[in-house]
Design a protein that fits this description.
The protein is mainly alpha-helical. The protein contains eight helices and no strands.
């Protein structure tokens, strides 16, 4: 999802939508930063999570895939809809659909729990709302069809080129969490 987010920002800038491009980057970065912070918290403080009433494994690894898929696809729908700040529903609906698909695949693969994917989806939807607010302020006149075609071509092409590329952030976050806080007693 990260290469796709960068390509969308470049395509938006290429068609003269610099402010919308910056809004997109800010919303995606905020969503991914929130997920990184939640993962660090979950990896560093399992006893705190248990004290909050969560059983071990309930929220041991919030789903970054669900969050990233939600902000990317819900965000694209938000940007395609006129006046996103006033009408965020298309983006939220597309984001919820993406959260269901991404979260469902994570559950099917057995790598996340239901609370993990719900957390990721909720963070992704918060990112969609942030994007709607930021992009609504930056919106100009409607994007002409050739500009929309360029953005969609970049999304489809980037998806094909970068499909299967892995970032391996999970291991880095676990190592960082292990080094940030002392081991629990």
């Amino acid at each position: 999802m990260l290469p796709l987010a960068g390509l969308v920002a470049l395509a938006l800038a290429a068609i003269g939508r610099w402010r919308v491009s910056l809004a997109w980057l800010a919303a995606v970065a905020a969503t991914l930063a929130a997920m990184a912070a939640l993962k660090l918290l979950a990896f560093s403080l399992p006893s705190w999570l248990a004290g909050a009433g969560l059983a071990p494994g309930d929220l041991g690894n919030p789903s970054g895939h669900a969050a990233a898929g939600t902000i990317c696809y819900g965000g694209l729908a938000t940007l395609l809809w006129p006046r996103p700040a006033r009408r965020p529903w298309p983006g939220l609906l597309a984001g919820a659909a993406a959260a269901l698909v991404f979260g469902g695949t994570r559950l099917w693969l057995g790598v996340h729990s239901v609370p993990d994917v719900l957390t990721g989806g909720a963070v992704g939807l918060a990112g969609v709302l942030l994007l709607a607010r930021l992009a609504g302020r930056a919106a100009g006149p409607p994007v002409p069809v050739p500009g929309l075609a360029l953005v969609l071509a970049v999304v489809l092409g980037g998806g094909l080129v970068f499909h299967g590329t892995r970032l391996y952030a999970e291991g880095l976050l676990r190592a960082l969490a292990a080094g940030v806080l002392p081991p629990e007693p």
